[in-house]
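Re: [help] complex structure
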Amino acid sequence: MDKLTNIQNEAHKLRMTPAEKTAMKALLRKYYEGPARPISSPYFSFFALRSFSGVGTYQFLHARVLAPLAVLLVVFAGAGTAAAAQGSLPGDLLYPVKVSINESIEVALATTPVAKAEVSAKLAERRVEEAETLAARGDLDTQTGQALAANFEAHAQSAQDSADTVATDDPAAAAQLRTNLDSSLSAHGAILATLSGGTTENKEATDVVATAVLARADSGTPVALGASLAKTAGSANQAMTMSVSVASSAEATDTASLGDAAIKNEENPKQEAAAIKIQVRAAQELVDAREQFEAGKDKLDDTSITQVSGEFVEIDTLMDEGSTTLAVNDYAGATAKFNEALKLSIKLEVLLRAQSKLDRNIITPVLDQENEDDGDSTGGAHILPAVLNAH
Amino acid sequence: MEDLQHTFEAAFEAYSDELFRHASIRLSDRERAMELTQETFMKVWVYAQKGGDDIRDLRPFLYRTLRNLIIDEYRKHKAVSLEAMAERHDSDVEDFLTPDESNTLEAAVGRFEGTQALKALEQLAEPYREAVVMRYVDGLSPQEIAEAIEVSENVVSVRVHRGLKKLKAMLDEQH
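Output below.
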C-alpha cells in the first residue's frame, strides 16, 4: 500500500463536499429512523432532498452573491421597511416595496433551476393568497384582480419554464416541483371559489383570479389534466412513468396484486431511492400540515376539526399502505401511494394556512365540495388511461 | 436498534468518503457515485435489521454491496458482465506470478504522474479496474478484497497483477 502513492494522492482529491456529506447523513438518519415514525424529524428539511437531487450544494454560494444586494436593500429602503412591506397587500403603501424590491431579491437568490422554480411558485402562490385575503374582506376590485391574476400568471409561467429546464437533467425533481405547485394551486382554486361573493365587483374580480389559478392547477377537469400530462409525458416525467408502469403491469397480468409486483430488475435501486424520496417529502408535508392544524385548532369549529382529522386519517392510511408496499419491493406502487399522500398533505396545509388568515369558515365548504366531486377522484383512476393514451 | 444506528453513523463517518471515491473511479460519474454511496448504506442497513448474521465486518460488506450496485449500473449500460470476464482470464496458470514481479510493476506504474495515472485507471477494463482500485486506492488487503468480491485471494492477486500490467502498458503507450 506504500506503492502507487501517485494514484492514491490523486484519488483522494475525489470527495464529497461537506454540504453533500451532511445532507446525505441527514437523509440516511431519516432512513434509519424508519417509515414507522416518518414524522419524527422536523429538523430534516427539504434541503436534504434538494441535495439528494444534486443541486443543493450551490445554495451555499448564494449568500455571497446575495450579500451586496441585501446591503443595497438596507441602504435604499431600510431593513425595517422591507420587513414591514412583507405582509402588505395591494393598495397598501408598502406593497410596491414588497413586489419590486423584496421579491426581486428573492428571485436573485435563486440561481439554480430548482431554486428558481421554487421561488417562482412561491411568488405565484403569494399573489393568490393576497387575492384570497382581499376577496374574503370583499375588497377585491376589478383592477387589482386583473393585476394579481397577471402577476400570478407571470410567476406561474416562469415556475413552469424552470421546471422544464430541471426536467432535462432530473425528471424526478421536475415532477416533484409540478406536483407541489399543482396540488397547492388546486387547493387555492377551491378556496377562491368559496370566497366568490359579496359585491358584484368583488365576485367578478375573484373569479378572474380563480380562473387563472385553476387553469394553471390543471386538475380542474380530468380532460385538462390528461392534456397536460400528454404534454409532459415526452419529458420523461419519472413519477408518471412509474404510475404508468403500475398500470401496465396491472393490465398485463389481470390478477396483479401490489405484492406480486416485486419484480427483480436493475432499475430497483433507483426506483427504491425515488420512492423513499417521495415518502420523506410526503412525511415532511404531513408534519407541516399537522403543525398548521395544531396551531389554528382552537379557532376551528367542531365540524372543521372532524373533517380535517378525517383527511389526516386518509393521509396516514396512504402513508402506511405506501410503507407496506415498499416493504415488498413494489417501488412503483409505493411511489403512487406516497405521491397521493403528498398531494393531499399539500392541499390540506394550504387550506389550513388560508383558514388561519381568513375570518370565515372555508374548510367545511371546500372539503364538502371535494367530497361531492369524489366520485372518480380516488387516486386518479381516470388519469392513468389518459397518460397511457398519450404514449 | 439505537446501537445499530450508532454503528451505522460511525461507519458513515469512517467509510463514506472511500466508498464515494471508489464509486467515482469505477463509474466516472460524480452524481451517480453519490447516489450509489447513499444506497449502499441504505441497503446494508435494511440487511442488518433483518438479522444480517453474515456481516462480520462492516467495511468489506459495504464494499460488496456497493460492488453489486456498480455491477447493476454496468449492466444497464450493456457492459460485459464482470463474471464473464473474470472466468475468461483467471484460470490462466501463467498469471500466478511471484510477488517480486508485482512489486516491479507497482514501481513502474508509481513513476507516472498522479493525474495521468488515475485517468488511465478510469479507462482500465473491468474486473481489473475494480481490483486495482480496491488494492491501491481503497487500500484493502487481498484478503479483504477477496471477501468483498467473493472470489479467492489467488484470483484477487491475479487481477491486481494483470491490472497493473495493463495499466503500465496504457501509460507507456501515452509516452
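Chain A touches chain B through 33 residues (CB under 8 Å).
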